[in-house]
Amino acid sequence: QVHLVESGGGLVQPGGSLRLSCGASGELFAVWTMGWYRQAPGKQRELVATVSSGDTADYNQDVVKGRFTISRDNTKNTVHLQMNGLKPEDTAVYYCTYAWYGSSPTYWGQGTQVTVSS
């Protein structure tokens, strides 16, 4: 089992920034992919970004549009999502995920709320 702990969500004004973090613990994989998904009210869950243990990052550009950056710290089994230029449509619950390298998510965090509002 892998346990994911997310932090960093909250309320921010449009144009502001937030940094989400997710730490993984437990029976970790030798090579892995961690990522962030989000789900807004009444909408389907969607991919935001992923990063591998080898530091390969992928983004859903329809969502990110050059505003978000995902990074990882292998020594701490942690990934971060730096979100800049936030818009009201970024309001959602953001979920951290963990998987074997290149695979679909096996583990999901409990989610952290991000609200963008003035």
What does this structure look like?
This protein has 118 residues and is mostly beta strands. Helix content is 3%, strand content 54%. It has 1 helix and 11 strands, in the order ββββββαβββββ. It has one helix at residues 61-64; strands at 2-7, 10-12, 18-26, 32-39, 46-52, 57-59, 68-73, 78-83, 92-100, 107-108, 112-116. Strands 2, 4, 5, 6, 9, 10 and 11 form a 7-stranded mixed sheet that branches. A 4-stranded antiparallel sheet has the order 1-3-8-7, with no helix packed on it. A hairpin with a 4-residue loop joins strand 7 and strand 8 (78-83). The longest helix is centred in the middle third of the chain and has 4 residues, at 61-64. The radius of gyration is 13 Å and the shape is globular.
What is shown here, in short?
By secondary structure, the protein is mainly beta.
Helical percentage: under 10%
- Total count of helical runs of at least 4 residues: 1
- Poorly predicted residue ranges: none
Major beta sheet, specifics?
A: 7 strands, mixed
Radius of gyration: 13 Å
Overall geometry: globular
Structure class: mainly beta
Distance between the termini: 40 Å
Write a concise keyword list for the protein shown above.
118 residues; 1 helix; 4-stranded antiparallel β-sheet; mainly beta; 7-stranded mixed β-sheet; 54% strand
Question: What is the strand and helix layout of this fold?
Answer:
Elements: E1 2-7, E2 10-12, E3 18-26, E4 32-39, E5 46-52, E6 57-59, H1 61-64, E7 68-73, E8 78-83, E9 92-100, E10 107-108, E11 112-116
